[in-house]
Design goal:
This protein has about 140 residues and is mainly beta. The protein has helices at about 10-25, 50-55; strands spanning about 40, 60-70, 70-80, 85-95, 100-105, 110-115, 120-125, 130-140. The strands form 2 sheets. The protein has a 4-stranded antiparallel β-sheet, with no helix packed on it. Strands 4, 5, 6 and 8 form a 4-stranded antiparallel β-sheet that branches. About 10% of the residues are buried.
Amino acid sequence: MKYFITTKPAALVAAGLGLMLVGCSTNVNTYERAQSEAAPSYVADKRIITDNTLAGTFRVVSINQATVSGNLLKIQATVENLKNKSRTLNYKFEWVDQDGMAVNSPNETWKSILLQGRETQTISTVAVTPRAADFRLKFRE
């Protein structure tokens, strides 16, 4: 018995594209405790959006703070990639004293993180002086 296999070029192209899309997926599944044992001290934030494309790519899920080493402010932000593809986020924290004046800090440089599709990650920093009473978190792509 002879078998003849006929394929249409369009079907092959569609199948190949489908396999490529599946192979390029970078979404991240996350599993965590259903009832969290953590008790974060969340910070209410004000958002100043000047780049709507960037705001549609990444979002801040939450910001919380703690005090470490007795008197240094620590800030942690949870950020999420809203896209299905891996994206690099550039960010920096800036410190401000209680009078609203900038506090120069060596950790106020732009840093980069790679977030996979739909992934959330935390970014954090610790003030280098107890004079730091507040912060700004800035993003750029």
